[in-house]
User: What shape does this take?
Amino acid sequence: MSVTLEEIIRHKRREVDDAKNATPLDAFRERIKDAPPARNFFGSVANGRGPGGFNVIAEVKERSPSAGTLRDPYDPAAIALQYENAGAVAISCLTDAAYFGGTPDHLKKVRDAVSLPVLRKDFIVDPWQIWESRLMGADAVLLIAEVLSEGEILDCMILAHELDMTALVEVHDMESLLRVQRHIGFPHPGYSLLGINNRNLKTMKTDLNHTIRLLDLVEEHRNITVSESGIRTREDLDHLNAHGVNKTLVGESLLREDDPGNGLRRLLGTPWN
Assistant: This one.
């Protein structure tokens, strides 16, 4: 039986409850004073000048429920550096351990290895994780509309802004998009992006045209819309670009390559070293 989003979230809530008991929020508030400045994830993705006009957030992860093991051995810092050299404008790093093989240490190593801003890709279910993300070195956090209530999303967006991080607010279905799109840009423009996930969260299948189908509803935010999942070829990038979307998050297709950096070069059409 395939893993469902509901199963992942149930596990994550238990995991976060245990972590909160081990590390109270007051401990984070004290440590945040010594955290290095956040990098501008929004600026890199929204205003970056990626090769060919394509701004790619390149993802590092060891495995996923839908794809199984992607890299063995897995060196997230080395892969992230390959991505940076190949023309990525930002890095997405999985930190969920149970289903994706990630750890906070992976993100720390990625951020030390590259000069690009780094997104913490995980399942945020509590504001406590926003503080945790900032302390582990994240410059942005993913907020999934199908996981959080409208009020929870707003609270997390406000906190991310206070901690100088970008919020990538991700939607899959139309109902979630209609619920959250008016909040993109809250509490201040330049701190949030809209992500459209092409992966069906029930079947885990991807359909690149899902982004295209929802674009009429996001006209106001098209210039800060990120198409996520299902991007495999330069033709896919061109297809999205023809509809006004030049920002994408790409992971599995690159991680299946022997050399993920060269996979990104082929996708972007950038020269080999």
Q: What stands out?
A: The CA atoms of residues 56 and 89 lie 6 Å apart.
